[in-house]
Amino acid sequence: MALLLALAFAGLGYRLVDLQVVRHEELSVKAQQNTQREFVLEPHRGDILDARGNLLATSVFVKTVCVDPVLLANRRPEVARAIAPLLQVTESELQLDGAALYPALHRLEERGLIDAEWGVSENNRKAKFYALTAQGRAALRTQADGWQQYVKLVARIMNAAEQRA
């Protein structure tokens, strides 16, 4: 009986070593294939039409590229040269010399819509702080008013379409 028990444990031990050590790589690949799949779903939303069939909105393909400037280091011009033709833009349009936010803030500052001031942040780092100017507040109000008019127009169109349906 003890011999039979010893043989059973020896068989289990052999199987354990076979699975965990000898065939580890093969079984790991098989497990990956069984548990991970990649699906490419191409979403396409339909066009939005009014009650008369006029096109109000449609889906448009947009290319998005995200780059970490820290990882690029001094290779920014080289990367810009490589990806500009793929995106069908010029190298200068890629704005790889900084995040898109900062050039936009700089343009707003040049137009007098915001003021910028250097200071120290909460984590004790040098930082630039931005604030709206009076001219900037007026431009914001104008933009907000325009947006409100747009929202009201869309609501009227939607209400008219619902009433006809």
Structure, described:
The protein has three domains: 2-35; 41-98, no CATH class; 100-165, Arc Repressor Mutant, subunit A (Orthogonal Bundle). It is 55% helix and 12% strand. It has helices at residues 2-22, 24-35, 69-72, 76-87, 101-110, 134-164, and strands at 48-49, 55-57, 114-120, 126-132. The strands form two sheets. A two-stranded antiparallel ribbon has the order 1-2. The protein has a two-stranded antiparallel ribbon with strand order 3-4. Strand 1 (48-49) and strand 2 (55-57) form a beta hairpin. The longest helix is centred in the last third of the chain and has 31 residues, at 134-164. It is extended and about 95 Å long.
Q: Topology of this protein?
A:
Elements: H1 2-22, H2 24-35, E1 48-49, E2 55-57, H3 69-72, H4 76-87, H5 101-110, E3 114-120, E4 126-132, H6 134-164
Antiparallel strand pairs: 1-2, 3-4
Radius of gyration: 31 Å
Tally of separate domains:
3
N/C terminus separation: 84 Å
Strand order of the largest sheet: 1-2
CATH topology of the largest domain: Arc Repressor Mutant, subunit A
- What is the CATH superfamily classification of the largest domain? Winged helix-like DNA-binding domain superfamily/Winged helix DNA-binding domain
CATH class of the largest domain: Mainly Alpha
* Pattern of helices and strands: HHEEHHHEEH
Q: If classified by CATH, what would the architecture of the largest domain be? A: Orthogonal Bundle
Count of strand segments:
4
Spans of at least 5 consecutive residues whose pLDDT stays below 50 are none
Counted by DSSP, the helix tally is 6
